[in-house]
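Predict structure. Input: RNA-directed DNA polymerase, 221 residues.
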Amino acid sequence: MQNMMEFNFLVGKKTFITLLDMLNGYWSIPIEDSSKHLTGFRTHRGQYQWNVLPFGLGNAAATYQRAMSKVAQTVSDFACAYIDDLAIFSDTWEEHINHLKEIFKRLEHFNFSVNLGKCEFARQKVKYLGHVIGSGRHSPDKERIKAIQNLQAPTSKKQLRSALRLCNFYRQYIPNFAKIALLLTELTKKKVPNEIPWSKEAENAFKELKTALCGITELWN
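Output follows.
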């Protein structure tokens, strides 16, 4: 499976983008008879077992991803699947219509249905995997940037790691990200107490990182 940024650049450079959301996608995947007993459970009404893939199994997400990847396997030049998102992307309107027809045929073949209320059709700009992409441009999702802007200064290594993970998601937009975040990264190391010593230098680095992220503009593919 490609990483998120590869998907974003692949999809975002196109003019027309459709995002399809599957309807009860897990339940579209049957369980082999030899494995059904492994999903058994008991209630006051009796014993039951699943005939289709349920949520919550340890390998359910990976199994679902493999099934969705099969849908896009032979059409990867205009479609890709990332967990529950199936993106179809094209240069022209005529191409896009033909691509959609092909995808719907494949979805029917693999027994998947779409949730029309959550689909977006033939958009020139969409929110996809934490970014806003389309027509050769991409930028961070403004709601996520707002969440970064509202971050309070962390008081523990756990809080700091969480904040850095959130910021790191958009590091490709920030020149010298590693340099700006260096002091903060040092504070997450094992030798540092769990209640981190929050110095003025750390506060300045934290503010600089948030300011850089909140000042991001659109980038071109």
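The first strand starts at residue 16 and ends at 21.
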